[in-house]
Amino acid sequence: MTENFRFPADFRWGVATSAYQIEGAAFTDGRGPSIWDAYALMPGKILGGQNGTVACDHYHLWEQDLDLIQGLGLSAYRFSVSWPRVIPEGTGKVNPLGLDFYDRLVDGMLQRGLEPHLTLYHWDLPQALQNRGGWANPEIVHWFTDYALTVYERLGDRIKSYCTFNEPWCTAELGHHIGRHAPGIQDLKTALLASYHIQLAHGETLLALRAQNTRAELGTVLNLYPVDPATDSEADQEAALLLDAKINRWYLDPVFRGTFPERAVAHYAEHMPSIDPERLKVAAQPLDFLGVNYYYRYWVSTEGKTLQDVERTDMGWEIYPEGIYRLMKDLHQEYPAPKYYITENGAAFKDELQNGEVHDEARVRFLRDHLQHLGRAMQEGVPVHGYFEWSLLDNFEWAFGYAKRFGIVHVDYETQKRTLKDSAKWYRDFVMQQRKFQAEEV
Ligand code: FCB
Prior knowledge:
Largest sheet: 8 strands, parallel, barrel
Number of helices: 15
CATH architecture: Alpha-Beta Barrel
Number of strands: 12
Mean pLDDT: 98
CATH topology: TIM Barrel
Bound molecules: beta-D-fucopyranose
CATH class: Alpha Beta
Number of domains: 1
Radius of gyration: 21 Å
Order of helices and strands: EHHHEHHEHHEHHEEHHHEEHEHEEEH
Strand order of the largest sheet: 1-2-3-4-5-7-9-10
Distance between the termini: 25 Å
CATH superfamily: Glycosidases
């Protein structure tokens, strides 16, 4: 099919991580507590009672980790900044040691030829702000904008791209409705209110950063899914459309159109918080890029049917490489952005370290097949400019603790030893092959 597709010469090949999942050093150099530190203390919330206090100790081992990325021949690195490391109380006093860390990290990337792609919010809200209502408090719009400007002032245009939010659905829905993520609230109205404030914070931050005349690209990152009805019954089709409105369009529409999707608004009915439609328009700032995190599709049955005979990852997620093709084609049609990045794509498997090696064939296949389908979308005109594999390292997988291994690099949490899995070597060789093609063409 697209075996011969050649990715463009300036295509960004990268890996992605996030602060709370890898940094550790949770109480080092003045970092304030985050909602994940607090959530991890609540009994029964995290598998095995684990937390991110040490994680991959990336705060101390960052040079070694950047060396690994460079060693794989990659050209870009997507990471996130921990808000409570930079402003421990969330507002007010800035922690210079926290900013110093990101300063070193970014210079370290540049020295190694790695383009920095920075995410401002990957879920680790300062606990001090949660105590003031967190995402449910309208004040958070300017708390967040101030934080973003603080980061920008220090790192500026050394950063290639700034992303405001990683997967706002997770913050709003998992954090405030389902309660399976910090802060662990279970209230639909609060979740919807949080999602509204996130949209406002996104828009206001883009405005504030544009006002700095930044040369960096500005955008956001959404988790998106193809949604398929299990049968062509009217009930299944309706249910699929509703789910699509709730998980995909609830986050796409504000950013692209400045509105929430009607179908979902009608469904939420009395749970809808009061929303100012005029104010929401601020969310629809021109984007330089949209980041897409793709993992699996939803298959919707009103009769409780489940997809049989499909391969699944250790998360139980269907392995569906064609989904990346369908998703990108549909997006480009309905929500055209000048540029897309795949900001996350990857899989957890039960990896085993044996004699210093990890033979993760399933992950190699996963990557190969997804890249092939991504290539197909690009061949058909979708402007995808980069791919960030999730993740560089095995890490703290939120409510699953350390039980799920997503890395292309294995981490021994006792010794912090990193070992390249076969998938890392495969990715390295794949990228090298792409470069060879390009060199031949010149
Ligand atoms: C995404 C998150 C990321 C990681 C992967 C597996 O939803 O953005 O932090 O947990 O899933």
